[in-house]
Amino acid sequence: MHFASKSYFSPLITLGQVHGLRPQAGYWTQIQRRNSHFLSLSPIKTKNAVKTTRMTEDLRHIPVLRTQALGVLNVHSGGLYLDATFGAGGYSREILNTEGARVIGIDRDPNAIRDGQVMVQEFAPRMTLLHSPFSAFEALIAEKLDGIVMDIGVSSMQIDESERGFSFRFDGPLDMRMSQTGPTAADIVNFADEERLANILFYYGDERASRRIAKAIVMDRAKVPFTSTLQLASLLGRLLPSKPTEINPATRTFQALRIAVNDELGELLRALEAAERALKLGGVLSVVTFHSLEDRIVKQFFASRTGKGQAISRYLPGEIVPPAATFKFEAKQPITPQEAETAVNPRARSAKLRFATRLEAPARPADQNLAKLASLPEPARRR
Ligand SMILES: C[S@@+](CC[C@H](N)C(=O)[O-])C[C@H]1O[C@@H](n2cnc3c(N)ncnc32)[C@H](O)[C@@H]1O
């Protein structure tokens, strides 16, 4: 897809200029205080604000850290922004509320694309919606971008629809595929060998009982294959008894399987690298994550790209030249939700926002150290 530069977009000033924002100490506080129009659409505000939101917004998913994640983009008229995780469109809508701003939304879930058509119509011609994994966005967008926002993970719709198989609270097929194509969680549980299963649970779920669970799964599946969420949840309940106050013993295993089914960490890393290539000079990459494995990748990526990491290249024998930074930080990070947000949306509790601004240096090739963070260890490695 190619977006010709649109002459009808008048060269208006940026939100940052409107608000007199400068990237300096206190930058974030200024954004919070002054971008109050973002806050006014939040479903957690006053009775009237809730009413306004309901008229215009899909409340099946409450966007997390939206004010903060979009505030740092400095959305402006004529700017082109990628919402790499469209979901229910909460982030896209907020960007489009800036007159003249254009959004390309991406989601790998066909349901999100189907339901998002209403917004495409509502904001035509400024909104485009594409069905794709976000790691492949470069193949679909020819124009350089002013900002990219990623709100990683699953949407409330995906979790709440039992037939998607993401939740151990409802019975449904053991599926967990965001894209609704390819191998399911049941395929992994029924066919992966015991060591791979244990590795998935240990590395993607931080499950200390990974070997015990993998062994029990392999024994059980020899009698009856796993087909449903509750079938697996009940095995986990038997193996790992817990008190009602503790987290459900299925939590870590379900998280691990979901990450494996959707290659969530590999997708994230490839998308960060693509973002480095696709952003304009001064463009901002803003990423919200929900668990430590994702956050570690974003943190290390930005550390290496801002020159804070250890990454260095050897250009000449004996001479070590650190590669030029491709991003710079504008504020202290990570940014986490305020109490008011977590009070109404407990899902926000573990959210972290990291963001950085693109500099001039050319994008770097894929980084092997980062790739290790996004993949399982080789089978031979002991833990
Ligand atoms: C947390 S939700 C985003 C919610 C959105 N910000 C909103 O306000 O409604 C994450 C969405 O990203 C999508 N997603 C996750 N990983 C993806 C990937 N690798 N490629 C494309 N879409 C992805 C999911 O299908 C889901 O719809």
Describe it for me?
The protein is of the alpha/beta class. The protein folds into two domains: 15-155 and 265-373, Rossmann fold, CATH 3.40.50; 180-261, Putative methyltransferase TM0872, insert domain (DNA polymerase, domain 1, Orthogonal Bundle), CATH 1.10.150.170. Helices cover 40% and strands 13% of the residues. The protein contains 18 helices and nine strands. It has helices at 15-18, 27-34, 36-40, 47-56, 66-71, 90-96, 110-115, 117-122, 156-160, 185-191, 194-205, 210-223, 229-239, 251-261, 264-278, 292-305, 339-344, 368-373; strands at 80-83, 102-107, 127-131, 145-151, 279-289, 313-316, 319-321, 327-328, 352-358. The strands form two sheets. A seven-stranded mixed beta sheet has the order 3-2-1-4-5-9-8, sandwiched between helices. It has a two-stranded antiparallel ribbon with strand order 6-7. β6 (313-316) and β7 (319-321) form a beta hairpin. α11 crosses α14 and α12 (210-223) crosses α13. The longest helix has 15 residues, at 264-278. The protein is globular. Residues 1-55 have low confidence and may be disordered. The structure holds S-adenosylmethionine. The site of S-adenosylmethionine (SAM) has 21 residues, from α6 and β2. S-adenosylmethionine is lined by residues 61, 63, 85, 87-91, 106-109, 112, 133-134, 151, 153-155, 178, 267.
